[in-house]
Amino acid sequence: MNSLRKKLDKLKPHFSKGGKFAKLQSVFDGFESFMFVSDKVTFKGSHIRDSIDLKRTMTVVIIALVPALLFGCFNTGLQHFRSVGTDPVLFQAFWFGFLKILPLIIVSYGVGLGIEFIAAQIRGHEINEGYLVTGLLIPLIMPVDIPLWMLALAVAFSVILGKEVFGGTGMNVFNPALLARAFVFFSYPAWMTGDNVWTEGLTAGKNIIDGFSGATPLSLCAAGEITKLPSFMQMFLGTIPGSVGETSTIAILIGAAILIITGVGSWKIMASVFAGGLGMGLLLNAISANAYMELPFYYQFVMGGFAFGAVFMATDPVTGSQTEMGKWIYGFLIGVLSVLIRVLNPAYPEGVMLAILLMNVFAPLIDYFVVQSNIKKRLKRAKVALNTSVK
Amino acid sequence: MSRSIKIKKGFDIRLEGSAEKKLAGAVNPVRFGVMPIDFPGLIPKLEVKPGIEVQAGTPLFHDKLRPEIKFTSPVSGRVVSIERGDRRKMLEIIVEKNGTGFVDFGKADPEKLSAEQIKERLLKSGLWPAIRQRPYHIVANPPDLPKSIFISGFDTAPLAPDYNFIIDNSPLSLFRSGISALSKLTKGRINLILKENSNNDKIFDGILEVEKSYFSGPHPAGNVGVQIHHLDPVNKGEIVWFVNLQDVISIGRLFEEGIYNPERIVALTGSEVIHPQYYKMLSGGAVTPLVSDNVKPGTLRYISGNVLTGTKISPDGFLGFYDSQITIIPEGNYYEFFGWAVPGTNKYSFSRTFFSSLLPKRSYKLDTNLHGGERAFVMTGQYEKVVPMDVFPMQLLKAIIAEDIDNMENLGIYEVAEEDFALCEFICPSKIEIQSVIRKGLDLMRKEMS
Q1: Same domain for B242 and B165?
Q2: I want to staple A139 with a disulfide (CB 3.0 to 4.6 A). Which of A59, A104, B164, B368 is the partner?
Q3: Domain end point (choices B75, B103, B131)
């Protein structure tokens, strides 16, 4: 450690203003602060500071994503081997999936961090940690068969137009990971919908056994084939086709527990998304106009990206509601809209992504009304005080 | 009617090095410093030059905008130097003590004086700055008539002095005279805020001018701003004054004995102090006699005040005008290998992102390391947990950063001061200088309203 520190101290002048590599200062700072927490001390205000920083916060989210990622690797392998008619052992499936998902992660981080480095250098800022989470979220909400160039394009779109043009991490309006998915969804719909993209190798169509269908539960529902749905338990465990990290509700719930215990993710948003889904689900159950509406409401929680969206997407503090009261409303409406879009809109089998992006737009408005009520209370108090003093 | 209010939001930072309840003898430093930076918003105008002989109570400088507000020497001696900082900003006026002379302001019974006479004595003696006001958290404006006056009788800041101990060792008769002087300056009440279940609140029973209220809960329950907010909030156009409990005693002394003598009991605290305990000294006194031979080795941070809101001073620096605490902690100028990634069984945090939160509660030795780099606002819902007021901290901060005057007013800028947001600054994962932002907002608002 000490020798590493000495090497860094020796290199540092070259990367500072006036040095040979001054243009790479942000990148150097980024790597330095990654390895060593800075020696900076407080000089005004509070003399002591909490040990937490954004790196720590983001690390917690990444740890919370690990169960979903590991299960995603396993499930990718499992779905593939099922499609070619073999029965894999656990590790075999996992390893197969891992090798398929690793390139997605590498491309996502490579492109995204590359752009972040350039943006930080242009602004003369330190590199922000926000992309550490986004970079892992993006592969987890993509179909495993997505071409790498398409992924790279989606990442570049979301980081540049979704985040950097607004001023970088903390300033963006839309959740960058969902924006990347929306980009693929609308630009290359063939790669984000249908029955083939969710299982590795199915689009190429080689050696696929007869009768294997890669249809996700949601597309079965949209097609009206409710009877073909996997069992609730299968969907809860996640051994179903779907985006890489979204299938296993149980793995996501482990992540949710980590976020809630550490206080990094808002339990209010998570709870209210589920409450919204529950409310809408019960309402549809009560109407029961078709087979999809009759589907018990709790199936909504384990199908598609509902749980993943509630736990990892809706809770993004930057794009979500920022007031505590607002978080309840924001989450609830996401839950309601997700189920509403799924069941009532034939064009979109999945509604979570669009519901969250839409509520991203409305989050500031919700906050505005919450804050207004505080302002009104204050004005009223001032008026009462004025009246009594006049009397 | 005495009220009892329970504060729920907030956070007690558990630090090592609280003062032992033992009063060392009086400390008599030679050098004294009066620091204009103790008074935010002040533009100091000098009245003395180096070499001039002064007495206790001789004006050293005054407020350029309100020249009647004088800042006087706490001791008799010679002005030795005027320390300046960047852009010739006046930092310290240093007086070397060489006698016991004092300016005689004359004994008087405050009961028999008019408000104007009381104000004149306070202004002349240099005790007026002990009276501060909300909004803006600055020295009070003499012509104003505040709707009430607040005196906080306890302190919840990290390692703060125990006011039960201070009260037990203070001349209460002087406190009584101080109160009767202050009671002439407001049309409303004098609120004395005590800690719930404090054992010596009976002492104040005989003082009819004060109305006692009780607060309990974690820091910042002892902050006068929080107390004002819950008992008599400041609306636009209203003014509330507040005075430190020990300064009320100094005010009493001015009327009883006719002298300016800002003596107080001071707690010497912090993990790097060998014998943390209480001392009697004058405000402005050099801390050297307290800390020489009484600190552990290493690079240290000397703070006049507490770790959240205090001022950084040098090892031979001075006790601030409003402070009754000196804290000494280690500096944190070291690199830490993957410090953000370690499990952190030994790292202190308000959040639950380190394993230390799973371990039993204990006291910590914290240093001045920033533990990260400055970022934009990212996390939400954190500040709200440590601000026990009906305000939206993050929205108010953003309004200040955007210099949106209307919104600042709407969101309650008149009710807050930097000290009420000190815990936000401590817990902020984005390492934003929140207290500086609030001060900037208060200064901007004051300029806008004048």
Answers
A1: yes
A2: A104
A3: B103
DSSP single-letter state for residue B135: T
Residues sharing a CB contact under 8 Å with residue B163, sequence separation 6 or more, in sequence order: B153, B154, B155, B195, B198, B245
Residues B124 and B250 in one domain: yes
Residue A170 forms contact with B (CB below 8 Å) = yes
The residues near B119 (Cβ < 8 Å, ≥ 6 apart) are B128, B142, B185
Is the domain of B214 the same as that of B136?
Answer: yes
Residue A54 near chain B (CB below 8 Å):
yes
| Confidence tier at A1 by pLDDT (50, 70, 90) | low
Task: Report the share of chain A in percent with pLDDT over 90.
Answer: 68
**Does residue B124 sit in the same domain as residue B251?**
yes
- Taking only residues 347 to 406 of chain B, the set having a beta carbon closer than 8 angstroms to any beta carbon of chain A reads 347-354, 366-381, 384, 390-392, 394-395
User: Between residues 291 and 320 of chain A, which touch chain B (CB distance below 8 Å)?
Assistant: 317-318, 320
Tell which B residues from 230 to 249 touch A, by Cβ distance under 8 Å: 233, 235-238
Q: What is the CATH number of the domain that holds B297?
A: 3.10.20.600
Residue B311 belongs to what domain range? Answer: 263-330
The tokens for B344 are 């952190």
Q: Are residues B65 and B127 in the same domain?
A: no
B254 and B123 share a domain? yes
pLDDT digits (tens, 9 = 90+) for A26-75: 888 888 888 888 888 888 889 999 999 999 999 999 999 999 999 999 99
Give me the number of domains chain B comprises: 4
The answer to the question of residue B231 being in a domain is yes
Q: Which residues of B touch A39 (CB under 8 A)?
A: 332-335, 369
CATH label of the domain that carries residue B87: 2.40.50
Final residue of a structural domain among B198, B227, B259: B259
Opening angle at CA B184, ends B180 and B185, nearest 5: 120
Q: Does any domain span residue B416?
A: yes
Asked if B435 and B422 count as a contact pair (C-beta separation under 8 A), the reply is yes
Q: How far is B163 from B168, CA to CA, in rounded Å?
A: 8
d(CA B155, CA B198): 12
- The minimum CA-CA distance between B305 and chain A, rounded to whole Å, is 11
Mean pLDDT of chain A: 92
Q: Chain A interface, mutation test: which of B229, B302, B375, most A Cβ atoms within 10 Å?
A: B375
3-state secondary structure of A319: coil
The model carries a pTM of 0.93
B267 and B254 co-located in one domain: no
Asked if residue B290 is part of any domain, the answer here is yes
- The verdict on a CB contact (< 8 Å) between A38 and B335 is yes
Judgement on whether residues B203 and B290 belong to the same structural domain of the protein = no
If we measure between CA atoms, which residue out of B394, B378, B386, B373 comes closest to residue B437?
A: B394
- The values of phi and psi at residue B210, to 5°, are -95, 150
CB-based contact, B338 to chain A, within 8 Å: yes
pLDDT of residue B304: 96
Q: Kindly tell me the sign of the dihedral angle through the C-alpha atoms of B345, B350, B352, B358.
A: positive
Question: What is the reported pLDDT for A213?
Answer: 83
Q: Do B425 and A47 touch (CB under 8 A)?
A: no
B356 falls within a domain: no
Closest residue in B to A130 (Cα) is B378
Separation CA B240–CA B227 (nearest Å): 11
If we measure between CA atoms, which residue out of B144, B90, B430, B109 comes closest to residue A169?
B430
Instruction: Mark out the alpha helices in B271-368 (DSSP H runs).
Output: 288-291
Helix axes A130-140, A90-123, angle to 10 degrees: 140
Q: B104: distance to nearest CA of chain A, Å?
A: 38
Neighbour count for residue B133 (Cβ, 10 Å)? 18
What CATH number is associated with residue B192?
A: 3.40.50.11540
Residue B373, pLDDT score: 87
For the segment A79-103, the average pLDDT, to the nearest whole number, is: 92
